[in-house]
Design a protein that fits this description.
It contains 10 helices and 12 strands. The chain is α/β, with parallel strands linked by helices and 324 residues long. It has a 7-stranded parallel beta sheet with strand order 3-2-1-4-5-6-10, sandwiched between helices. The protein has a 3-stranded mixed beta sheet with strand order 7-9-11. Strands 8-12 form a two-stranded parallel ribbon. α2 runs parallel beside α4.
């Protein structure tokens, strides 16, 4: 299949592109390179340096025989979304409308969308499954939920089948070392730990140690980005075969606390990784863990790389390679 990966030069997008190529698909990468990197491109892909706010560029690009779209082009910082809602509304919602309109005009009827566990908000029960109420607590999560609603209408009115993949915490790097472009200004735990381990930052801040968890620090569900990428290929195949709508969580179903991740990183890297205690951040739940049962049943989803050691080891090797 000929697949256009929008946001394909980014951290997750490059891993998805690699997985699609490995599965035998032809790929195009459409990216404005605001956060995407040239190091994340592959010679097998056609590259379009364009923005999703450029309706004309989207329509011209999709005329090149594309049969499916994978959409990963979103602003994604939850905190930033609360102070810059205009940017998030324009890029995430208006940009997606442009993508859907271009798909409709070019009669492309398969779409895999990068959604987020942020659509759920504060958990009412754990593990979180797809039937959990959706009450986003930040504007970023709101934009993802609105896009899911938009896609349902385009399915009904324009026949665009879609898979919405609700990510939990993506982490790690390609185990074969084929992707070396690092995220710019990361805010997630493991990349920050890696920056401390490689000397980019002086220390890690641990935001609270008095949560109702075994060691007092927050617990999150981490999924290796390669497992995430493989799930995109499986979701594309599912939509190709069945059409309609698919909404699934993608997580490892096991939580790691901040201290567990830190101690694993110290052990695997052999680095001291200094850390200090800081105040809690507003809105941080004590624990977030996914149920991925639906993805297992419908996609055959089975994370192979999402244990703590592999998450840390593949990240450390990527960060060391980038610093050489």
């Amino acid at each position: 299949m000929r697949v256009l990966v929008i946001g394909g030069a980014g951290y997750i997008g490059s891993h998805v592109t690699r997985a699609l190529i490995d599965a035998g698909h032809e790929t195009g990468v459409y990216d404005n390179f605001t956060t995407g990197l040239d190091e994340n491109l592959f010679p097998e892909s056609t590259v379009y340096r364009c923005d999703i706010l450029d309706q004309g560029a989207l329509e011209e690009t999709m005329k090149n025989g594309y049969q499916a779209v994978v959409h990963l082009a979103a602003l994604k910082a939850a905190g930033e979304s609360m102070v810059k809602p205009e940017e998030y509304a324009t890029n995430n919602i208006t940009g997606t409308i442009n993508i859907l309109n271009a798909m409709a005009r070019n009669k492309i009827h398969r779409m895999v969308f990068s959604s987020s566990a942020a659509v759920y908000g504060e958990p009412e029960y754990l593990p979180l499954d797809e039937d959990h109420p959706t009450r986003p607590e930040n504007f970023y999560g709101f934009t993802k939920l609105e896009i899911e609603r938009l896609m349902r209408w385009y399915l009904q009115l324009r026949g665009i089948g879609f898979a919405s993949l609700r990510y939990f915490n993506a982490a790690g790097y390609d185990p074969d070392g084929r992707i070396t472009g690092l995220e710019r200004n990361p805010a997630n735990l493991l990349p920050v730990i890696m920056e401390v381990a490689t000397g980019v930052r002086s220390k890690l801040s641990i935001f609270g140690d008095d949560y109702p968890t075994p060691d007092g620090t927050c617990i999150r569900d981490y999924i290796h980005v390669t497992d995430l990428a493989d799930a995109h290929v499986a979701a594309l195949n599912h939509i190709d075969q069945h059409g309609g709508e698919l909404v699934v969580n993608l997580g490892s179903e096991s939580g790691l606390s901040v201290l567990e991740m830190l101690e694993t990183a110290r052990r695997v890297t052999g680095q001291e990784i200094p850390a200090e205690l800081a105040d809690r951040r507003p809105g941080d739940p004590a624990k977030l863990v996914a149920s991925s049962q639906r993805a297992r049943e419908l996609l055959g989803f089975s994370p192979r790389h999402s244990d703590a050691e592999t998450l840390v080891d593949t990240s450390y090797r990527a960060y060391c390679a980038a610093s050489q």
